């Protein structure tokens, strides 16, 4: 990798939406052109499930089922992005983490030495009522590195 390039490692957040797949395609092309490392990451929002359990919207059994389903979905989403990268002959690291995006994404950015985050576009006026939009907005607000929002 070229050490003069300010982008050595790109993290793309994958959540199964078309916007996140567009962000993945953008990140793949950018990583290829910059010869940067690329990591695809999905966050299983276990914190949200725990909150639903605490207010008795979910039972322990239901929480376990949802968590397994979310992991399975994340694995399929990451596999799709991985396949897209391989078609471009680009090596990609796949990561699935659990927790609250607002907490785990900054931790992973720091731990992995990420220089740029790519995430799918969103409408900020929906952040107060849409969980996924709120999570994306929090990532943009709290990121320690540049964030590219791909529409």
Give a short overview.
By secondary structure, the chain is of the alpha/beta class. The protein is 52% helix and 19% strand.
Model description:
With 151 residues, the protein is α/β, with parallel strands linked by helices. It has one domain (9-150): HUPs (Rossmann fold, 3-Layer(aba) Sandwich), CATH 3.40.50.620. It has five helices and five strands. The chain has a five-stranded parallel sheet with strand order 3-2-1-4-5, sandwiched between helices. Helix 2 packs antiparallel against helix 3 and helix 4 (101-112) packs parallel to helix 5. 27% of the residues are buried. The model has no long low-confidence stretch (mean pLDDT 87).
The major pleated sheet works out as: 5 strands, parallel
Structural class: alpha/beta
Uncertain ranges: none
- Span between termini: 28 Å
CATH topology (fold) name: Rossmann fold
Order of helices and strands: EHEHHEHEHE
Count, helices: 5
Categorize the overall geometry: globular
Helical coverage, percent range = 40-55%
CATH superfamily: HUPs
| Beta-strand percentage range | 15-25%
How many strand segments?
5
The figure for the number of domains is 1
- Taking all Cα atoms into account, the compactness measure Rg is 16 Å
Mean pLDDT: 87
CATH architecture: 3-Layer(aba) Sandwich
CATH class membership:
Alpha Beta
| Order of strands in the sheet with most strands | 3-2-1-4-5
């Amino acid at each position: 990798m070229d050490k003069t390039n300010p982008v050595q490692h790109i993290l793309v957040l994958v959540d199964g939406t078309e916007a996140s797949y567009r962000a993945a395609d953008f990140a793949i092309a950018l990583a290829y052109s910059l010869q940067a490392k690329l990591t695809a990451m999905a966050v299983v929002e276990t914190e949200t499930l725990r909150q639903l359990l605490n207010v008795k919207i979910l039972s322990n059994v239901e929480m376990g089922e949802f968590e397994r389903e979310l992991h399975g979905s994340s694995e399929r989403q990451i596999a799709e992005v991985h396949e897209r990268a391989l078609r471009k002959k680009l090596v990609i690291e796949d990561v699935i983490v659990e927790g609250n995006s607002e907490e785990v994404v900054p931790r992973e950015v720091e731990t992995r030495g990420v220089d740029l985050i790519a995430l799918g576009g969103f409408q900020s006026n929906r952040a107060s009522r849409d969980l996924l939009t709120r999570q994306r907005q929090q990532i943009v607000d709290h990121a320690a590195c540049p964030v590219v929002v791909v529409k």
